[in-house]
Amino acid sequence: MRFSIKILLLSGLLLASCATYYQMNYEFNQSFESGDLEQAARVLEKNKKAAEGKARFLYFLNQGIVQSLLGNYEISNEAFEQAYIFGEDYRVNYLNEAASLLTNPTMTEYKGEDHEHLLLLYYKAINYLKLGDYESALVECRRLNIRLGTLSDKYKNPDKYQKDAFVNNLMGIIYEASGDVNNAFVAYRNAYETYEGDYKKLFGMSAPDQLKEDLLRTAYLNGFSDEVRRYEEAFGRKFTPSPKNGGELVFFWNNGLGPVKAEWSINFSVIHGQGGLVTFANSDYGFNFPFFLDSNEDDKKQGLAALEFFRVAFPKYVERPVLFNSATLSANGKKYDLEAAEDVNAIAFKCLQERMLAEFGKSLLRVALKKAAEYQVRGENQDLGAAIGLFNALTEKADTRNWQTIPHTIYYSRVPLPEGEQKVQLNLASATGRKQQQEFTFDIRKGKTVFHVFQSLEDMPTANPYRTW
Fold it and tell me: May I ask which residue range the UniProt record assigns to the signal sequence (predicted)?
């Protein structure tokens, strides 16, 4: 009886740890999604120990986003720098990796997705631009360039996400704003080629018209007449240089929120072969994963050979569909479309999809080892074996950690404005007819570029299953 009580107590404790990462941070997520950023900052401050935990990368990212939206750009960049350093210094902890094979992948440090490591530098660069610090923004551009090179070296398969068009586009915008039109042209050209190559094939996204105009303009400013003619033909338009009597506004619209990771599971049956070969099969999905497990005869009788079927948990993304799907800027009687430049939601899904086979392999090996240990102990002590079986079942979970405060999609537009205080109106529109407007005032100076980021947090309420958790 005493042993059963201990098992029940253990069950209760473990059940409490079965929540997804989103659910475990529900108080913060609720504050952030409702736009109560001061409360979101207080929640982070209250949970400062998370800055030393296994998800500290995400803690720094959330701290960076919240402080940036509050206008505390220097504090924001301190947090993003911590996240950047974490990514640079990350090393695999093999002890934690071994522990994760006996429990679940949340025992390891969250190292971050490829696109998350790029986007944090996007936020850092924008923060520096808001502070008027172009030199530091260019440092972030160089870091972005290094990370893009690392990404290209990491994946050789052209069907994988290995180049980022938006990051190159952003670098071009920053280089041009700082007066470096040569590097701006190179970055714009790289962005255009990636949009028309990888992005069109992987995400169905073409180069924005604004990028084409920027590419033509910087080719002209560099005196690259052959390039001007080549791109005029490619774009089907004639480039006409326009006099710059005032300044410019580059406006980024971070629309909605990116996806959150959740969990799904599959029951696998075990087919035993010769010489330690076992195949984990699921006929519903047509999955067959053969493993060669080097075990002795006793193990086969008491451990792996006793396996018949088991449940394995995997991560999946759940999209948070955006409410607004188009926007324009109005200034001085003219309208400027905000064009989609980065589909963060699609990139996140693509990144997880690309490594699902590896996820399957790791998860199946984890569960097989756990079940083998359970059956071996059962042969010596039935009660202890039952306890281990319960522990294994309750600790089986997927890694549902990801950066959940990034935007769903990033849009942008470039607006020429005369000198002085200028009013610009943002007009948001949804597919259901809902409209929203917001007015901004910018101090425009001749030959200078002003940057602004607007974050809309609205999504389709009925599409988010976590709202009612």
Answer: 1-22
